[in-house]
Amino acid sequence: xxxxxxxxxxxxxxxxxxxxxxxxxxxxxxxxxxxxxxxxxxxxxxxxxxxxxxxxxxxxxxxxxxxxxxxxxxxxxxxxxxxxxxxxxxxxxxxxxxxxxxxxxxxxxxxxxxxxxxxxxxxxxxxxxxxxxxxxxxxxxxxxxxxxxxxxxxxxxxxxxxxxxxxxxxxxxxxxxxxxxxxxxxxxxxxxxxxxxxxxxxxxxxxxxxxxxxxxxxxxxxxxxx
Length: 226
What we know:
This protein is of the alpha/beta class. The protein has helices at 34-45, 59-68, 85-92, 112-119, 132-143, 167-177, 182-189, 193-207, 212-223; strands spanning 9-10, 25-30, 50-56, 73-76, 101-106, 124-127. Helix 4 (112-119) links the parallel strand 5 (101-106) and strand 6.
């Protein structure tokens, strides 16, 4: 008999309720933080509407779980090793057939992240700084077929240089902030190295900076908190 991959944490314990019960929302959590995993396991363990059926520590493990576990909603981080949240959503777009709905659960406060999640097919977005009740509400809404995103003000793009960036340039800026090299960015976005350099040149011009270090410093100053 085959066995589950050893690096996947599979629970398959649903607190006395059947996994086939449609009233239960089967969830897989993918987050690099053990504290987040433990916290969500406790949160869902106290609510019989949910079943945490597996956890993963990075995007690659999460994609493996899609292939071996049937679940309804994936709650994933945006910054994850090996394959980040953006990469997970892009890979899921290429899967034929039904896939779980994805909620991005992150501490990243950059306003472009919810926009990227929506554009890449995510179903919901929730900040880790929000209350557990807010995450529960988001999961319930998404399970009912709704999309849940924060308000995104598109009325004043000219007052914010980051608002002038195209979707691709936003992707590159976030990739830079995560420490990726040009070669890694080209591979992840499936574009040529010359195309990466072209987009970076435009990005630097719009942000009025001279290099990647200044672009990242500007981004982190604007959108991250201690």
